Amino acid sequence: MVEEQLKSRNIKDPRVLDAFIRIPRHTFVPSGDCEKAYGDYPIHIGLDQTISQPYMVALMSQCLALGGWESVLEIGTGSGYQAAILAELVQEVYTIERHEELSLRAQGKLKALGFSNIKFRVGDGTLGWPEEQPFDRIIVTAGAPHVPGALKNQLNDGGLLVVPVGPAEEQSLEIIRRDGAQFEQKTVCACRFVKLIGEEGWAE
Ligand code: SAM
């Protein structure tokens, strides 16, 4: 996975590559799909949701340009795999999932793997986590119709928000950098995610 899917596609951040080597991805897929866990595609995890393709997890992690000191907010805990990668890379991870069942399952797996630097919340992540803001980095792992304003507002000065934005069928992966009251936006590539559902996302 690391050689054929990540290094060959320009994932160069050595800390991101190391995290992929350390985290057992098969732990995060349904038990019947273990042999597919390291394949080059997303996998269904129930409730119409997916664990993202390894390359997309790596690309988004690399886009966050993490030094190790940051606090990171993730919207869309899903299987917990992206949260595990982030928790290897930074001090503190905050992750929000709208489906309680998925959040509880992810919490069990991440605690069993020994992670103690991840805080979980069940709810609408489009509104962010006001009590814990500001965040140095925010990553949204579901497709948003537009950039949620609450997430921009909860970014630290100099912070980065990585988010797929666009129509339900295809989005573009955007990196937004906060510079005081200004926000600079850069498009990375086309991508396809499940819908971000919530007050500042798609209607259910
Ligand atoms: N990061 C996940 C992983 O590593 O497995 C993949 C996430 S999956 C592609 C997208 C997740 O976003 C789903 O679990 C979905 O329920 C969740 N989601 C969608 N809208 C949400 C919202 N407003 N707040 C929190 N989670 C949301």
What is the topological layout?
Layout: H1 2-6, H2 14-22, E1 43-46, E2 49-51, H3 54-63, E3 71-75, H4 81-89, E4 92-97, H5 100-112, E5 118-122, E6 135-140, H6 149-153, E7 155-165, E8 171-179, E9 182-191
Helix pairs in contact: 2-4
Describe the structure.
It is built from 6 helices and 9 strands. It is an alpha/beta fold and 204 residues long. The chain has a single domain (2-191), classed as Rossmann fold. The strands form 2 sheets. It has a 7-stranded mixed β-sheet with strand order 5-4-3-6-7-8-9. Strands 1-2 form a two-stranded antiparallel sheet. The longest helix is centred in the middle third of the chain and has 13 residues, at 100-112. It is globular. The structure holds S-adenosylmethionine (SAM). S-adenosylmethionine is lined by residues 49-52, 75-76, 78-79, 81-82, 96-99, 102, 124-126, 141-142, 193-194, 196-198, 201.
Q: Rg to the nearest angstrom?
A: 15 Å
* Hetero compounds: S-adenosylmethionine
State the shape.
globular
CATH topology category name: Rossmann fold
- Corresponding CATH superfamily: Vaccinia Virus protein VP39
Helix/strand order: HHEEHEHEHEEHEEE
Q: Strands of the biggest beta sheet: in what spatial order?
A: 5-4-3-6-7-8-9
Q: Alpha-carbon distance between the termini?
A: 34 Å
Structural class: alpha/beta
Tally the beta strands: 9
CATH architecture classification: 3-Layer(aba) Sandwich
What's the main sheet like? Answer: 7 strands, mixed
Poorly predicted runs of 5 or more residues:
none
Mean pLDDT: 98
Write down the domain tally. Answer: 1
What percent strand? 25-35%
**Highest CATH level, the class:** Alpha Beta
Question: What is the share of helical residues?
Answer: 25-40%
Instruction: Quickly count the helices.
Output: 6
